[in-house]
Write a structure and sequence with these properties.
By secondary structure, the chain is of the alpha+beta class. Helices cover 54% and strands 25% of the residues. It has 2 domains: 65 residues, no CATH class; 80 residues. It is built from 3 helices and 4 strands, in the order E-H-H-E-H-E-E. Helix 1 packs antiparallel against helix 2. One of its GO terms (biological process) is transcription initiation at RNA polymerase II promoter.
């Protein structure tokens, strides 16, 4: 390829799409289920840590607990509940994604992720068409490269 001295190398976003196949669906569903299971584990661990911290404070305090002890316990419960809300939101998002994947039709194209790539331009090139490049994968294998390379 003969490039004139007044060319420029630029970066462009490259959309990577996947063709929905039974294998692709299985892999994505397994990934999402693993995320859901991980969040469930984090929720259980969070509960145990919160209970342990509260039990430790109660063990070290006077009986009945004073206002400072009650404030510490309340603070722990607030922190645990905030983190729980965060984790439940993540789990909810993964569950919604799982449901969406199950509804996808075979051979449909879906956005997978985005990469950056370098390309050259020179006078006379159509910059807009050079910016619109995408890669299509089928089960992880490049099936097609679309656009002006």
């Amino acid at each position: 390829m003969d490039i004139s001295p007044n060319h420029l190398t630029l970066k462009r976003p490259i959309n990577v799409k996947a063709v929905v196949t039974p294998r692709w669906k299985d892999e994505v569903q397994q990934q999402l289920q693993a995320q859901i299971n991980q969040v469930d584990g984090q929720l259980q661990q969070l509960d145990m840590q919160g209970q342990r911290a509260i039990a430790e404070i109660q063990k070290q305090s006077l009986q009945p607990p004073g206002p400072q002890t009650l404030q510490q316990i309340e603070s722990i419960q607030i922190q645990v509940n905030e983190k729980k809300s965060e984790l439940l939101e993540q789990k909810n998002q993964s569950l919604q994604n799982l449901q969406q994947v199950q509804l996808l039709e075979l051979n449909q194209e879906v956005n997978q992720f985005q990469l950056e790539g370098l390309f050259s331009v020179q006078p006379g090139d159509n910059l807009i068409s050079k910016m619109q490049v995408e890669i299509l994968l089928r089960d992880g294998v490049v099936e097609e490269i679309r656009g002006d390379l």
